[in-house]
Amino acid sequence: MWKFKLPTEVIFGSGSTNRLNGIADTLGKRKIIVTDNVLAELPLTGGIIANLNNALLFAEVQPNPTVANVDALTAVIRAEKIEVIIALGGGSSIDCAKAASCLAKTTEQSIRKFHSGGAKLGNEHLPVIAVPTTAGTGSEVTPFAVLDDVEKNFKGPIAAEALYPVIAVVDSALSCSVPLKVTAATALDALSHAIEGYWSKNHQPICDTLALEAGKMIFANLANVLNNPDDKTGRDALAYAALLAGMAFQLPKNAIIHACSFPLSNRFHLPHGVACALTMEGAIRLNTPYMNGRMEQFAVYCDFNDIATMTAAITDLKQLGGLPLTLKEAGIENSDIKQLIEESFHPLMNNNPKEVTKEDLAKIYAELA
Ligand SMILES: NC(=O)c1ccc[n+]([C@@H]2O[C@H](COP(=O)([O-])OP(=O)(O)OC[C@H]3O[C@@H](n4cnc5c(N)ncnc54)[C@H](O)[C@@H]3O)[C@@H](O)[C@H]2O)c1
Ligand SMILES: [Fe+2]
Description:
single chain; alpha/beta; Rossmann fold; Dehydroquinate synthase-like, alpha domain; 2 domains; two-stranded antiparallel sheet; 8 strands; binds nicotinamide-adenine-dinucleotide; binds fe (ii) ion
């Protein structure tokens, strides 16, 4: 038995952000755009901001958004009686906006209670229109917001139905300005969503199909885009693949790769996609024997002869994108491994097809040493 659902309306296509004003008007009069200070200054995204009638601008979201970012945004939303939130950016801006859309409907001043505090978010939220500018996180179609609590040294997701954006407007033209390294990291984050949704203990047929297609499209297009960043067809394919991958993991949820990514981002400040990419080949080698041939099927669907050629292709993509291939290149010492392992047992680890032991993680990290 399985179920599939996705409450978010998806509007996809190059140029679809031309309709943003009209779409936002259907949801409310008082609008706020949530973004970061890089995107606020870029010509294309800056143009979108300028075209949104009478919208306030909150451009203070940090990469790996913080509890403090969400709390500050919520204070503005309340003070300005905002009715609709437009999240324009990568996963960081979208997650910050989603979390604030829920916090604003509570009586709390800080999202911390619902993050490290573990309290459940209710169903009420302001409408969020998610406009991704990276082809990666899939946050435009997921019920998660990943936040960093700097003071508590804790990074992890909040999960709640109320975190699904109401509308996702996916305009691949926006991702053309993403720098090479971020393009590689975000696409490999999307690949990790496809793989983790596919191997999660909660995997199911529709999400499997979405995962297979996302994986195939990322492998078919990422090298082309890294070699030719202006490849619009390739950028379009990666935006579509990231969307599919978001749909593929939003119900089954992630597993070992994301559980390991949290201390890698938290302690060593690796961008999310870089952290996911670091352990990907090792995690594939670990899980494959426990998947009854399904991982080999994934590799074949993605046009590889076997798992070894697929993992070699992942390593090549990391190299092409300038991502770290070893712990040393990631700024991690061998003496850090013990603590990394201790901090990797996030509840997402329980979704993994193989029950993960400390020895398993030690082997993955030893291969990267
Ligand atoms: N909610 C979810 O389901 C989910 C899933 C995976 C990851 N995440 C989270 O998302 C965050 C990462 O998001 P991300 O990888 O999209 O990165 P990001 O949002 O942090 O952006 C990375 C950098 O790229 C820049 N950038 C973004 N779009 C650009 C563009 N079009 N042109 C030029 N520069 C651009 C940003 O300004 C930023 O400096 C992490 O916190 C991660 O944990 C959330
Ligand atoms: Fe991710």
